[in-house]
Amino acid sequence: MRKFTGILVSIVAALFLALAISCAPADTGKSSYAEDRAQIEDLQARYLFALDFFDLDTYVSTFTEDGVLDIIAYQAKGRDEIRKKLEEARSVFDPASENAKGPYPPTGRHNITNIVLKIDGDRATGRSYWFHYGNSNPERKPVFDGYGHYEDEMVKVNGQWLFSKRVIYNEGVAEWIAPAKNPCW
Amino acid sequence: MRKFTGILVSIVAALFLALAISCAPADTGKSSYAEDRAQIEDLQARYLFALDFFDLDTYVSTFTEDGVLDIIAYQAKGRDEIRKKLEEARSVFDPASENAKGPYPPTGRHNITNIVLKIDGDRATGRSYWFHYGNSNPERKPVFDGYGHYEDEMVKVNGQWLFSKRVIYNEGVAEWIAPAKNPCW
Amino acid sequence: MRKFTGILVSIVAALFLALAISCAPADTGKSSYAEDRAQIEDLQARYLFALDFFDLDTYVSTFTEDGVLDIIAYQAKGRDEIRKKLEEARSVFDPASENAKGPYPPTGRHNITNIVLKIDGDRATGRSYWFHYGNSNPERKPVFDGYGHYEDEMVKVNGQWLFSKRVIYNEGVAEWIAPAKNPCW
Lengths: 185, 185, 185
Prior knowledge:
Chain A is an alpha+beta fold. Chain A has one domain: Nuclear Transport Factor 2, Chain: A (Roll). Chain A has helices spanning 2-27, 33-52, 56-61, 79-88, 90-93; strands spanning 63-70, 75-77, 108-120, 123-134, 143-157, 160-170. A 6-stranded mixed beta sheet of chain A has the order 2-1-6-5-4-3.
């Protein structure tokens, strides 16, 4: 009798193990390509809102503690240094800080498109386009005025995707333009 | 004997309960962040096709029955009122309705980028950028001519995401521009 | 005793079957709307990087072997023919090939927005907007210069989404403009 029960328990245990393994992909569904891509797209968009509305707390929080912002002209490493660089460039990134003549405060907006993502566990590599428009002129006329592309490295820290490195190429300055080779795959 | 069987059944039942709970996230995978975001991105894009091609039936169907369209200048509540407001503004939203001189009918196109989404069950909050270009000029020259941002509330009704409220800020009119504070998180 | 064990084994087996079925949706999570949409968005973005950086190997690899590129002016069928057509239009698509005067090589960039996707198993139908900007002028001034929309058919081949047909409408040429009716749903 005990023998039978023992065998039965073993069979049940084995079946549970098999089932648990077969269910595993479901359990990790939260880190599927779509789930990670969805989180990263949200990160990318929040980064740009923070930049354009000059919300530096949120902006630096999209980077890892030792994240790198590389705009070719310089590299800033870590949230404090990144914040310092942004503060220094306030007149560039925060149109409202300008003493621009006109009927109301001017604005500038960075946009992201064409997001390509390769994701491997807690690490991701990204390529995408950015472009900018604004109305920093006396008539508040909308003007398309800049573009380039991003080359990103991202990591998942405590379940949250962050930039560990963002390189920004800019087709408006000779020294900052992209190499001719397709940066994608 | 019966006692052993009883204990065994209890153990099996307990294990099943535990396993069922551990499998549950898989079962609800259809309403994961990625699944909801994918559906909402599709909604956002279909809304703009409907607007630009002036397909009012599809346009109003992207709102809930009592959905609100708020363009600061006015609020329209419910599909009928929203449709009425769009009809009144036909000359603005339907370039083909214009008697514009030129070699072929002009077009105008609204685009969405930088979609930020917070999703909580059947409710979602969105922030995103919009911009517009068109060729409503005699040469049919492409012109970038407007931008702003959306602040959205969405609900899932019978498995389908719809706008319960869309607020449209526009940087081209003094009264409709965005407050200076980052509307995102 | 054997009878009890037999009944118990039957109950356990039945429960496992029920549980396996309830877990099944999780297992096929890899081809959910979000997963397919994520893969297709990546395809769409890689296509544009390949086009703008004139990486023809990658460009033609985004089509199926017998895929069709239809720009209204002509239809190219199959990767070889598509490549040939692109080579012929090099001066249009590869700004760096131009002998454009200026301080550094000019660039041109196609962007995609407003992606609407209907997915049915291994087949997908897409609608989306495209627009173009570049700096092919002596001052390397960023200029917004073209737009239209895509109508796509895609298939999943060996787990990878590819274009089986891409039709490109262009609002810059009378013969290539979109019909007035909303191409979406």
